[in-house]
Specification:
The complex is a heterodimer of chains A (488) and B (102).
Chain A (H helix, E strand, L loop, with lengths): L1 H8 L2 H18 L4 H26 L2 E4 L10 E4 L1 H24 L2 H23 L3 H20 L4 H32 L4 H7 L4 H18 L8 H7 L2 H24 L9 H22 L3 H17 L1 H6 L4 H31 L10 H4 L1 H15 L5 H15 L3 H26 L13 H16 L4 H9 L12
Antiparallel strand pairs in A: 1-2
Chain B lengths: L2 H22 L3 H26 L6 H32 L11
The chains are: A mainly alpha (488), B mainly alpha (102).
Chain lengths: 488, 102
């Protein structure tokens, strides 16, 4: 009982930000300890999310003013079911990536990787806990800069060009977002998301802000045709970093879009949601076709991310037509995709380590020689295709249901077609994994924990399919998807 | 209208100019400079609008935002310049290659 009281009093939301931030800075000062610090922090963050979740489960959505200073000059943290779900996936994927990275990087690379990864974790946690549009900007920048540095750390030519292209897109995205913040503050005199929603009226300044914020976030989320930076950055990065970028970083800017479109921009009658749905549909088809064409495994997986991001945007026209359940559907899809794509990128890293390359045609009987990794690809792939009983299946099913209810046959077609194309590119990988290559090739051993980390993420993506009810109940805490959000 | 409005308009104009420069110039240094101009434009808009909101004393919140924004912009510029130099040392060029995805 004393234990429970203690855990309820802890300011878990502040802990979730401070822990990785402290680990990042200590990691820079003591590079020799960076790995231990990072791994320990990843474990502690899981516990902190559990603590926060317990508190929210008992008392509902939670608000915390850091240092007792409230809005407008202080920083307020806010956590409801949606924040908690994002934090939980971040903690789980983060732990798997941390375990994987202890074996993946050599000593020299590790001293660069761990502090940057901890900064990224701090930024992600802070982003999911912010209720203030300017804090969201700061966390976006912290996330973007650490993500770019993580891509660049490999140091070879492709990594540097990928990172540079990513940096240019990320900076433009966040400056556009900041312009939107300036306009909203000027128009309505508050930075608080909930208060903004209460005050917002359809005046010209809101249209300008809507344009700036939305385009900025589309750039960072890499929605077609603003995805140009994603394949090169996600391919050039080391595999654990690719897992973080595809799994979490693109979801973070999507999360911001959802927060704005549920609240501030929710009641505006625009044609923008139709356009977002159209771009999403094109992304699903075009990204999948591109994935199918690729000869290099990592590029295939990166283009698959472009396609899967498209699905998330199908929610906008459906919600505008009254099907608010589409929000839950795409958030479910985003959570499952984070686990599945994280697992897939880690598995790709194993194959690359084993074979010394990632040319799909030259894979040599991987299934017999790396069975755990092949299993990870199969499980994660099942979720990405949307096969039952995986998390991807539930997400797509909910989305399909929303589209059927609205009689949006065009969207139904896109959802089904995207699933078929995903099956085609996943089987392309698995097919070559079964066949022997033309000649014998040198291979390298893959540490066991790298295989288990990939497999556990694939497994988690499938388990998500059995947790539909608990996850949907969790997402309902604090009613994050109700227009007229009852925030702080 | 008045001086405040003029400042805000100048800020938005700077953002537009910078966006133009960002798109038309291939040189990375020019692109990074364009980002700095764009940042200045946004900050100018913010500061100008701070004056408009309150009567006698300007609103402190946009000023706090601008100071934070400047810190972020310095960090971003430092990272961008560093990347540019590294890239220049590797490719002996100051533009991004058209397509290096293959």
């Amino acid at each position: 009982m004393a234990m429970a009281a203690w855990s309820l009093d802890m300011p878990w939301s502040a802990v979730l930000i401070m822990l990785p931030l402290a680990a990042a800075m200590l990691g820079f000062v003591f590079p020799g300890r960076a790995k231990v610090l990072g791994l320990a922090t990843s474990v502690l963050v899981v516990f902190a999310v559990v603590g926060l979740g317990y508190r929210i489960y008992l008392h509902g959505a939670l608000q915390h003013s850091i240092g007792g200073w409230g809005a407008p000059l202080g920083i307020e943290l806010y956590a409801d079911g949606l924040s908690l779900a994002m934090l939980a996936i971040t903690a789980l994927l983060g732990l798997a990536v941390s375990v994987y990275s202890t074996a993946y990087f050599d000593r020299r690379q590790a001293t660069r990787f761990w502090p940057l990864w901890m900064f990224l974790l701090a930024a992600l946690n802070a982003l999911f806990l912010s209720a203030d549009i300017f804090n969201l900007y700061v966390t976006l920048e912290l996330m973007g800069l650490s993500a770019v540095a993580l891509v660049a750390q490999a140091g070879y030519r492709e990594a540097l060009t990928g990172a540079m292209r990513y940096l240019l897109a990320a900076l433009l995205g966040s400056l556009l977002y900041l312009l939107g913040v300036a306009l909203l503050y000027q128009g309505f005199g508050t930075l608080d998301l909930a208060m903004l929603e209460a005050r917002v009226t359809p005046v010209p300044v809101v249209w300008a802000a809507l344009g700036a914020v939305t385009v900025g976030m589309l750039l960072k989320t890499a929605l077609f045709p603003l995805h140009f930076w994603l394949p090169s950055a996600h391919t050039a990065a080391p595999s654990p970093v690719s897992a973080l970028l595809s799994g979490l970083v693109v979801k973070a800017s999507f999360y911001i879009l959802v927060r704005y479109w549920v609240g501030v921009f929710g009641d505006l009658d625009t044609a923008v949601d139709t356009m977002l749905g159209l771009l999403g549909a094109i992304a699903v088809v075009w990204g999948s076709l591109q994935a199918l064409r690729q000869q290099r495994l990592k590029l295939l997986v990166a283009y698959s991310t472009v396609a899967q991001i498209g699905y998330l945007f199908l929610a906008f026209p459906l919600v505008a037509a009254g099907a608010t359940m589409a929000w839950q559907a795409v958030v479910y899809l985003a959570l499952s995709h984070a686990l599945a794509k994280g697992g897939l990128f880690l598995a790709v890293g194993n194959l690359q380590r084993f074979e010394g390359h990632d040319r799909i045609l030259d894979f040599d009987r991987v299934v017999q020689r790396l069975p755990l990794t092949a299993g990870a690809i199969a499980l994660a792939g099942a979720s990405i295709m949307g096969l039952p009983p995986s998390g991807g299946f539930i997400g797509k099913w909910l989305l399909l249901e929303a589209a059927l209810l609205q009689q949006r046959w065009d969207l139904v077609m896109v959802i089904l077609l995207g699933g078929l194309l995903a099956a085609a590119y996943i089987f392309k990988i698995l097919g070559y994994a079964f066949t022997p290559a033309s000649g014998p090739q040198p291979t390298h051993s893959v540490p066991r924990r790298m295989e288990w980390a990939a497999l556990s993420l694939g497994f988690a993506a499938v388990v998500m399919g059995f947790l539909a009810m608990p996850v949907l109940i969790l997402l309902g805490i604090g009613a994050p998807f109700d227009s007229g959000w009852s925030g702080p | 209208m008045n001086a405040v409005f003029l400042y805000a308009l100048a800020g938005v104009g700077l953002v537009g100019l910078a966006l133009h420069a960002l798109i038309v110039h291939a040189s990375l240094l020019r692109k990074i400079l364009a980002f700095n101009f764009m940042g200045s434009g946004v900050f100018l808009t913010m500061v100008a609008l701070a004056r408009r909101a309150g009567g006698e004393h300007p609103d402190a919140v946009p000023q706090a935002m601008v100071i934070t924004g400047i810190v972020v912009a310095v960090a971003a510029t430092a990272l961008a310049l560093n990347l540019m130099l590294e890239l220049g040392a590797t490719t002996r060029d100051d533009v991004l290659p058209d397509d290096d995805r293959a």
